[in-house]
Amino acid sequence: MSFALKSVAIAALSLTLLSAHAQKGETVKIALIDPQTGLMGPVGMNQLRSWQYFAEKFSASNPAGVKFEMVAFDNKLSPAESLNAFKAALDQGVRYITQGNGSSVAGALIDAVNKHNERNPGKEVIFLNYAAVDPDFTNSKCSYWHFRFDADTSMKMEAMTTFMKDQKDVKNVYLLNQNYSHGQQVAKFAKENLARKRPDVKIVGEDLHPLAQVRDFAPYIAKIKASGADTVITGNWGSDLALLIKAANEGGYTGKFYTYYTGVTGTPTALGTGGEGRVYQVAYQHYNMGGDMGKWGDDFKARYKDDMYTGAIPTAFNVLGAAMAKAKSTDPVKVAAAMEGIKVNNFNGEVEMRKLDHQLQQPLYLTVWQKADKKYPYSPENTGMTLAPVKEYPSYVSSTPTSCQMKRPG
Q1: N or C terminus: fewer CB in 10 A for the chain?
Q2: Beta bridge partners of 202
Q3: What's the domain range around 380?
Q4: Residues facing 225 on adjacent strands
């Protein structure tokens, strides 16, 4: 009898240990659906390398003991191509997808994931959004299966205008943005926040231009100069920001730029020394943070001869690994439940995946373009310049409310 009881106890213990490490050694495939060709191809390729780099880093060490494998699809910045890529990923048995370039693409993928998960119980997919920042995705269009690791447009504008309200030289503002949801939201929140914090500031002009199609921004710079604007607010990214800055330098525009994506591929080179002290960026990281980010940045540059600027990628791996360890599973249903409200220590401090809307709450940094020096030595694209920190805003400063009415399974 005693032997039988011991056998049962040992079997029960074995099952407990097995369940505690049920996911250990599993390979988790993540499909990256982003542009790798076209005008935005250089940005997409940089981020593909970043995903591959951090998949390797976090495979070597994560609390769940899983291995991460990237599967890349070139969506050519097209929602239709992205939906084809999503179907191809499903055919390969992928249960986790990620995307960041273009909120129009993200919106299509959120709808596709929602429909797939509703129709295919037991084969659910999670969408890890690392850079598509339309606030609607965590408000009116929030989805249980969507988790955002970047700060949304409204959060960044909250931090940016908190800084701008104390800059007395900001009097006349021009809004120049890409004509899709993100650019439209930048303009919307800029006007709302400035009206609330600096009602004396005038919006002297506003333009929306086609995404990734404009090759010469000289006509826009001429309009900005004619308006008398001392400041431009833009959410432009990739070639649309690099070519805008190039046109501003060539056209002799000496006003300030408040941006979201100065550090992204091509823009540092376009800036050169021309924007020193005049170009600002708001983001959840910067090049001179030191710590893990500093080590990763130096290692990435040595390996790829390129700059690593998308910190939402290691954040996603950090949160995902912690959630899988908490869930003791790689099943998206269990992992999604574990990610809700999870807090982790990240390269930029403690971050939290807000349960209400699946929007990551994290600190933001305001930086300015200046010469690299001993204090701030990192030089993107070997320009001799850098983005130096001016102000750090804790999570509660940039956090914005949500209207999300989350529909949870069951």
Answers
A1: C
A2: 172
A3: 154-283+363-398
A4: none
The CATH number assigned to the domain holding 270 equals 3.40.50.2300
Distances (CA, A) of 63 to 130, 194, 230, 314: 21, 44, 50, 14
Token look-up 């308006």 returns 227
For residues 279 and 302, membership in a common domain is answered with: no
What is the number of other CB atoms lying within 10 angstroms of the CB of residue 234? Answer: 25
- Sign of the CA dihedral running 138, 238, 130, 348: negative
| Confidence class for position 13, pLDDT limits 50, 70, 90 | very low
Residue among 357, 331, 312, 381 nearest 149 (CA): 312
Is residue 77 located within the same domain as residue 44? yes
**pLDDT per position as a tens digit, 90-145:** 999 999 999 999 999 999 999 999 999 999 999 999 999 999 999 999 999 999 99
Distance in angstroms (rounded) separating the CA atoms of residues 295 and 263: 18
Full-model pTM? 0.93
Is the domain of 337 the same as that of 380? no
What value, to the nearest 5°, has the Cα angle with vertex 63 and ends 61 and 68? 55
